Amino acid sequence: MKIPFTLPRQIWFAVFGILLLPAFIWVLMRSGPLAPIQVTVTKVVKGEVAPSLFGIGTVEARRAYLIGPTAAGRVGRVLVDVSDTVKSGQLLAEMDPVDLDKRAASAAAAAQRGQSAVITAQAQVSDAKSRQALAASEAQRYVDLAGKGFVSQSVVDGKLQQQQSADAQLSAAESTLTSARQDLARLEADREGAKQQRGNIRLLSPVDGVVTSRDAEPGTTVIAGQSVLRLEKPDSLWITVRLDQGRSAGLRAGLPADILLRSNPGKTLAGNVLRVEPNSDSVTEERIAQVGFNTLPQGVSTNEMAEVTLHLPGVTDALIVPNACLRYRGAQAGVWLRADGDLRFVPVKTGAAGLDGKVQIVEGLKAGDEVVVYSERELKDDSRIKVVDSLAGTAK
Amino acid sequence: MDKGIGIHIEGLSKRYGAGDTAVDALKEVNMSVAPGEVVGLIGPSGSGKTTLLKCLGAVTEPTKGRMTLGGEVIYDNGWKISDLRVLRRDRIGFIFQAPYLIPFLDVTDNVALLPMLAGRPNGEARARALELLQALDVAHRAKAETSELSGGEQQRVSIARALANRPPVILADEPTAPLDSERALAVMRILNQMATQYQTAIIVVTHDEKIIPTFKRIYNIRDGRTFEETGEGRALE
Amino acid sequence: MISLAGRDILHSWGKFVLTGLGLGLLIGVTLTMAGVYRGMVDDAEVLLNNSGADLWVVQKDTLGPYAESSSIPDDVYRGILGMPGVAQAANVTYLTMQVRKGSTDVRAMAVGFEPGQPGEPNYLVAGRRITRSHYEAVADVMTGFQVGDRIRIRRHDFIVVGLTRRMVSSGGDPMVFIPLKDAQEAQFLKDNDAIVNSRARTAANPALNRPGVPGLLEAINASQASNHNVNAILVRVDDGHSPEAVAQDIRRWKHLQAFTLAQMEDILIAKLIATASKQIGMFLAILTVVSAAIVAFIIYTMTLGKIREIAVLKLIGAQDRTIASMILQQALGLGLIGFVVGKIAATVWGPAFPKYVLLLPTDAMRGFVIVMVVCVLASTLAIRAALKVDPATAIGG
Q: What per-residue confidence (pLDDT) applies to A394?
């Protein structure tokens, strides 16, 4: 073969071999289990941890009102629509009165008739009274006459009996009057009742608020308790936040909150915890808290999702490490400590943890200790490591 | 003729095939070459000269006869040597129509190959090679690749190779065929010099008119039979 | 004695080196295929070992959660936690799906886990562990995501807060770790159109939408929109207890299936990888035969080109042994160059493969031995041809 170079071919072959051999050895060393594991390290420092609790919530109204009839009926008219602002006492809707008007009229008429019966009874009482007075005076006169011996006893007895009979008639007439009066009271109560029922089909707003739902249109039949309109007080919006039970230590009323609404994720709103519900959700294992807005934002809708971060009091002067250092052996948390060129797994006890990944170490390390943060693979006690600035493929 | 060293053939016959299709390539050939003698073997193609060379070169087995090489009976109606290859290596030198050098060895190693094959240490083999190359006046090309040499230089290297193991016998097959008259005579000159210097018996198969006059003795071969003749013996300066 | 093989190689070194390079690439492919197989097995082992679990508890009569789909209620783990020998029991979900980032998407396995429990990746290569209960994710680097990327899983956007490595499913898909509740929702909730349709269908059903029962429809919709199932429970067994014993207890008393690490390995490797490994085995066999054929062809051609020299060598007294050894050494030299080139090539291009390629030193050594044996066998063809040459042909040519 013709070689255009001047060097003898042995040299070229040797060059080829010299290039190949170290490449081969490099290959053997770099790959496979012979290669050391690349890790990054950091020092344990003292700093501040800002622990926070995080949860997802939905915007709800504190007070929501369901407006509906107390008796089954048909919806007559609905006067407001969704998003209308209403005042307390405002007529919102009315059920179809059906025969209620007629019934009220009938009750009024009956009351009238009762009134007449009372007058009749009163007249009867007057009549009985006058008869009784006459019978009484007659009886007295005859008793006097009998005492003087002018009349016979039987006549006197007859007059006494007339007096008793007149008394009895008076009592009867009085009791008839009483009963007519009671009857009148009953019929008047019936009349009032019919009026009230007529009034009940008028659905009035109990508070100042905003209509959030129009559930039945005129002509729809609804039963007692079914909603025709729903109202909310717009200034009573708050967020029902659910937090994992396991990560809710320190939850209490009054904690400051950062609120991010799904509809406006760029703006963080301020709020605070108004109430922690005494009942947790055992199925989802969450605690529930109510977080209020410090200033109610515009254009918020209920059932909107929000991300809420609650700030617990910060921990200062704590030993902190990034939470990427933590490794778990079973349930025991620990870190890989690099001391005197040696690698050792050290169990640690953690304290507060911030949402940014900083974790307080309560036990197990001291300031200035060097710990492994990132590693290419799971480390073992006898792993050989090589410290680098950042692991391949992750540098931005 | 002296039977001690050199080449001595008696009644050599070679039959190819059997029965009706048998061909007698050699029929009772007799031949003698003394050490230091350069003898021509001349004949038309098909006369059996190639067969005779093959028998002498111990690559083909004759049918019957007797061959003596360098004082040793190598064939007497059957091979008398157990390892013919060693015989060829140590006792016979071959010069071919074309130089047939090994292209991946340089000039020195082409010549030194034979002593190395014979077991000589590399240094000694190369020293002997250099010596022969000097004698043949191609020592200045000792380190060259064979492809870099001219035809004549290659031929001289092949002659050196044939001599490398100091064989008592050299068989040359048309060594001058491709050469012009001046170069052909030069080759003959060298052969004669080497023959005298190393006391080698050399048979040259040829039909080259240019060199036939240089032989002192010629064997004509026709139809498998040889006839001895006296050659012109023209001098070579 | 000089080395005839060495001289011949040096003389036509270009041809030799080029052939060696070509053969080397072929050997590199072969080594890589073996590496793919080892990688698949390693994927399975890494999947099992990285989960930190001793037992996998799945739906009865399934081979889940990787080989078969398995669904169990998410409160079963409480019962298992109470059993003797159980140190930790945690719910996990697995869902293979397309994860979207911007306009591209990546096939990944979304893993739902509870922090501090088995199922969470134990080491990171960048970023931090998840601290929020929703919408944060840790992704394997093979997804191509970086810390800070916003990715979309089903209906929600997640932000990648950490990266890890070698967390892949048994199918080789990289994993993305998200909080369990988000994963349960992702596994269950469909897109908005489907939800609206489902609500309409429920509302049209008179049995479910009863006017006399206010609130019934809402309650039904809410129950339909929640998912309280997980795919498996990962159990860590106390020291001093045997995983198999705990597994027996679970199988017997809890009407669930429980697999130990050894059984999971068997399922993954024997069942999932079986077909792929057969295919790879066939490929390896074919590649070996092809390599042998190429070496045989090359050496044979080189030998045929030297027929005349071989005849001359035999004539002038070279032994058959010398000539055979020259051819054999050339074949071995070719194999050596090919192997070195192949090993380097496989190491260089291995990381570029979409699946994990694991090149073991033992495989390389085995490969080397096979290459040498193949070269020896392949050279026999040429050696036979060389030995058959008649030295007489050198005369009278």
A: 55
Mean pLDDT check: name the lowest of A5-9, A53-57, A179-183.
A5-9
Q: Per-residue pLDDT averaged across A64-74, rounded? A: 87
- Alpha-carbon span C126 to C107, nearest angstrom: 21
Cβ distance of C13 and A13 shorter than 8 Å:
yes
Q: What is the mean pLDDT of each run of 10 residues along chain B (237 residues)?
A: 68 87 87 90 84 88 89 88 87 88 91 90 92 87 88 87 90 83 84 87 88 89 84 76
Kindly report the number of other CB atoms within 10 A of residue A77's CB atom: 13
Extract the tokens encoding A30.
């770099």
Residue C134 and residue C115 in contact, taking contact as beta carbons nearer than 8 Å: no
* Contact criterion met (CB < 8 Å) for C146 and A394: yes
Q: Which residues of A347-366 are buried (b: 16+ CB within 10 A; e: fewer)?
A: ebebbbbbbebbbbbeebbe
**Sign of the alpha-carbon dihedral angle for A8, A9, A14, A15:** positive
- Pairwise CA distance, residues C129 & A249, whole Å: 19
Q: What is the pLDDT of residue A3?
A: 46
d(CA B8, CA B70): 9
Q: Calculate the CA dihedral of residues C132, C136, C142, C146 and round it to 10 degrees.
A: -100
Q: What are C301-310's contacts with CB under 8 Å, separation 24+?
A: C302/C8, C302/C12, C302/C15, C302/C330, C302/C382, C303/C327, C303/C382, C303/C383, C303/C385, C303/C386, C304/C382, C304/C385, C306/C8, C307/C386, C307/C389, C308/B100, C308/C394, C308/C397, C309/B100, C309/B102, C309/B103, C310/C386, C310/C389
Cβ atoms of residues C161 and A355 within 8 Å: no
Q: Are C199 and C19 in contact (CB under 8 A)?
A: no
The pLDDT value recorded for residue A31 is: 62
pLDDT above 60 (res C379) = yes
CB C28 within 8 A of CB C345: yes
Q: Tell which residue, C261, C239, C243, C241, has the closest CA to residue C251.
A: C243
Averaged pLDDT, A159-183 = 89
Determine how β-strand C229-230 pairs with β-strand C72-73: antiparallel
Rounded CA-CA distance B141/B129 in Å is 12
| Residue C157: closest C-alpha in chain A | A262
> How do A358-363 and A237-244 pair as beta strands?
unpaired
Contact at CB, A244 and C133, closer than 8 angstroms = yes
pLDDT of amino acid C274: 82
Q: Å from A52 to nearest chain C CA?
A: 9
Q: Which two tokens stand for residue B85?
A: 């290859």
Tell me which residue in C2, C316, C396 faces B88 most closely, judged by beta carbons. C316
**Cross-chain residue pair C2–B122, CB shorter than 8 Å:** yes
- Nearest Cβ partner for C395 among B53, B86, B89: B53
Identify which of A263, A285, A260 has the alpha carbon closest to the alpha carbon of residue C184.
Answer: A285
Give the rounded percent of residues in chain C with a pLDDT score beyond 70. 99
Residue in chain A nearest C346 by alpha carbon: A27
Under the banding of pLDDT at 50, 70 and 90, the label for residue A262 is confident
Give chain C's mean pLDDT. 88
Backbone phi, then psi, for A223, in 5-degree steps?
Answer: -100, 170
pLDDT digits (tens, 9 = 90+) for C272-310: 778 888 888 898 899 888 988 888 888 888 888 888 889
User: How far is Cα C103 from Cα C94, in angstroms, rounded to an integer?
Assistant: 24
Residue type, position B130, single letter: L
Q: For position A5, what pLDDT does the model report?
A: 46
CA–CA min distance B187, chain C (Å): 19
Interface-testing mutation among C316, C319, C321, C323, with chain B (most B C-beta atoms within 10 A): C316
Percent helix, strand and coil across chain B, each to the nearest 5: 35, 30, 35
